[in-house]
Write a sequence for this structure.
């Protein structure tokens, strides 16, 4: 373990992150909301801590091994979660405990969108901007992590495509090529953000709201500058713009890269995961719309179509924007939508959940096992895009699924032991591990009323889901720390 090299990287990360506290300070100065000192103090403290980490280790530059990579990734998210909580804890509007500030920060950086803050419409502009910015920065961190770092560690969903996809996915170690890829992904991410912001502005949002919501839309985060979320604007145009960009952000960013580089739609058309992703959303939308209209939840079919489409896309992509209280919808719909978040977005996207490609492989593997019962001696490969997948990859997906369900059950039981009811505990863990945000029962609107131990457990669940389970769990094994 190269601890000094890891310490040097951690110090650099903190110093770079301190710069991210300056834009909210500028917003505070523009709007004269009295919070500028909070962000300047936070920036100084975070930079100072980063400098203290970096100075003793700045001469150590050993090449990191895979084991070091796991620790760097986890420390990166933990350190940024703590650093991001500092301005929220220092601010007096809103007044947040350390637990609440950390919960909000981790929720933002992991693009979960679960919040413990109410009265958003009365908060200082700089605090609102900062929450949106946390999600935007977290979203980009996820893309670079998924495409450039996770394949090297062998735990991300992206290694499923390494053998069959040209371009950035063939890189399996940190090289200048991956640096260039990460830069290209930044441009794509920034381009989508600008396009989304401009579209929101043209549709009627203020410049401030357009920027803030473009941040959380492209990051698939779900934070809003208003308590009523997207529903505040009462605009069909704004909601349909959100639908388009949520769908794009939920796709594999490596495909955006390949399509942009080749100036062709073929990477999307040929991709098995994208077709499954869109298919799931189409079926979910159809069921939602028909049931809403059949139960007379909405009198007019056009309204059922509009509301059903928006909520289905928002929940399925794990964005978490709302235009209505979907948790109050009749019958099985709220649970169906919550289950859709388990599938989530595509690998290499800002979406949460288990990822579509894993569910595709689980279904194909299940079908293969049924065929083996009929033909015990047959050699039946699991194929994705007409190419057979190695058994190691299929086994890894089963292992991921088992670890996911096991972690889910343990955290849910812990939440119930703290006093939460079954519906609230189940939906809270689902919403946080899938990086969705809004749940059902006591967490249908926000997480204000749940107890502190539950908030700490859910913060862990957010990180667990965002870091693909194994990246975090491996740190709790003896083998990882053994020389």
């Amino acid at each position: 373990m190269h601890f000094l090299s890891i310490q040097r990287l951690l110090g650099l990360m903190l110093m770079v992150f301190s710069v991210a506290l300056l834009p909210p300070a500028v917003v505070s100065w523009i709007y004269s909301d009295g919070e500028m000192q909070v962000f300047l103090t936070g920036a100084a403290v975070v930079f100072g801590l980063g400098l203290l980490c970096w100075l003793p280790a700045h001469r150590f530059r050993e090449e990191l091994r895979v084991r070091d990579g796991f620790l760097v990734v986890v420390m990166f998210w933990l350190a940024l979660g703590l650093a991001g909580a500092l301005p929220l804890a220092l601010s007096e509007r809103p007044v947040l405990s350390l637990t609440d500030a950390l919960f909000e920060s981790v929720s933002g950086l992991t693009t979960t969108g679960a919040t413990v803050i109410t009265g958003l419409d009365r908060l200082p502009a700089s605090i609102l901007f900062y929450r949106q910015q946390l999600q935007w920065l977290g979203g980009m961190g996820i893309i670079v992590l998924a495409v450039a770092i996770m394949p090297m560690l062998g735990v991300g969903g992206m290694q499923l495509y390494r053998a069959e996809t040209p371009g950035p996915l063939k890189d399996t170690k940190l090289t200048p090529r991956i640096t260039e890829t990460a830069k290209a992904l930044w441009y794509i991410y920034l381009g989508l953000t600008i396009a989304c912001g401009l579209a929101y502005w043209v549709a009627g949002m203020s410049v401030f709201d357009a920027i803030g919501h473009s941040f959380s839309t492209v990051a698939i985060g779900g934070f809003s500058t208003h308590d009523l979320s997207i529903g505040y604007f009462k605009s069909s145009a704004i909601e349909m713009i959100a639908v388009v960009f949520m769908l794009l952000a939920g796709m594999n960013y490596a495909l955006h890269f390949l399509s942009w580089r080749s100036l062709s739609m073929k990477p999307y058309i040929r991709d098995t995961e994208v077709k499954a992703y869109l298919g799931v959303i189409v079926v979910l939308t159809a069921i939602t719309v028909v049931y809403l209209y059949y139960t007379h939840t909405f009198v007019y079919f056009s309204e059922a179509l509009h509301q059903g489409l928006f909520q289905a896309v928002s929940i399925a992509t794990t964005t978490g924007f709302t235009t209505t209280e979907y948790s109050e919808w009749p019958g099985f719909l709220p649970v169906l939508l919550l289950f859709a978040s388990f599938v989530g977005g595509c690998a290499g996207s800002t979406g949460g959940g288990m990822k579509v490609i894993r569910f595709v492989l689980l279904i194909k593997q299940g079908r293969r096992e049924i065929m083996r019962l009929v033909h015990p001696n047959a050699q039946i490969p699991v194929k994705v895009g007409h190419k057979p997948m190695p058994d190691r990859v299929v086994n890894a997906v089963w292992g991921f699924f088992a670890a996911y369900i096991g972690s889910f059950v343990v955290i849910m039981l812990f939440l119930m032991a703290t006093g939460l009811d079954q519906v609230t505990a189940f939906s809270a863990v689902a919403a946080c591990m899938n990086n969705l945000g809004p749940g059902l029962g006591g967490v249908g609107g926000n997480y204000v009323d749940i107890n502190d131990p539950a908030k700490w457990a859910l913060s862990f669940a957010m990180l667990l889901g965002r870091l693909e389970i194994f990246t975090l769990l491996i740190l709790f094994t003896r083998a990882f720390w053994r020389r």
Notes: Residues 152-175 have pLDDT under 50 and may be disordered.
